Amino acid sequence: MQLQHHQTTHLCGRSHATHAVHLPRRTLLGGTAKVCTVFYKHISQYPNNNTQHPKVIYKHATKHRAIPLAPIHASSTTTPTQTTPQDFRLKPRNKQRVAVFGATGYIGKYVARELIARGYDVVVFARSSSGIGGNASEQDTRDAFKDADVRFGDVTDVQSLTNTVFNTPVDVVISCLASRTGGKKDSWLIDYQATSNVLQAARAAGAQHFVLLSAICVQKPELEFQRAKLKFEEELMNAGDITYSIVRPTAFFKSLAGQVELVKDGKPFVMFGDGELASCKPISEADLASFMADCIEEKSKINQVLPIGGMVVVVGGW
Length: 318
Known about the structure:
Layout: E1 2-9, E2 15-26, E3 33-41, E4 58-59, E5 67-68, E6 97-101, H1 108-118, E7 121-126, H2 138-144, E8 149-152, H3 158-164, E9 172-175, H4 184-205, E10 209-213, H5 224-237, E11 243-249, H6 253-264, H7 285-297, E12 304-308
């Protein structure tokens, strides 16, 4: 993997330094191997007291984007009773316990399988009846993640999380939770409250790192699920006693694949205007899962907000 330094322009037209991380991408179109580029804003590393990491607060009351404000440094004052836990990254992967929430969802299952393939001690948390329409039974979920420790419970209940997942030590939490409808009630219940429940239980149990699957569209929050995700991002960044990696991907190839199937059936390709209006840089599900797994060990991704997408611009409609 190569890291290159670039000068890019922000949405507001201001230039800032970025890094480009080149990863392999498996596309759904033609099976050809291409390259995706990940851009994320570089935030300097600040000294800390080994008990808390600096936080970057985002002002998201603006209409068009989240604006980074000045970092807030942790206090240098400690008490004699405070102890610093051993960095979980010093342990071999098979001793690093990683809990995945939303593992039966579209991206979550790719993330869980990637972690299992890398040799982590993976805990998969799911509902007793999961999947689309709740059609997957507990046994179906166990069969889907045979090499993971599968636990069942309710993300809307903190006690359920505490009793089923965090009753044993967990080093890292990865949340791929997402509302299904995007409606007001569903968004605040899952994108915010359920994810907040996971954070609360994780912090109480001493988890050290939290990886959040967010979305690039929260930069311009207009829909309810975007506002809910953005509110949780702020809560996570302000926690102070747990480090984080917030991943904001662009559209997935699943969106484009639907259009391809329509065209293959002889139906028209839907476009908005000249196609540029809905242009984006979609990312493959497997590459996104790989990037999220990288957030566990790569220190450059600690306490960062990480927009990620492919390098190929796709125009048209969705």
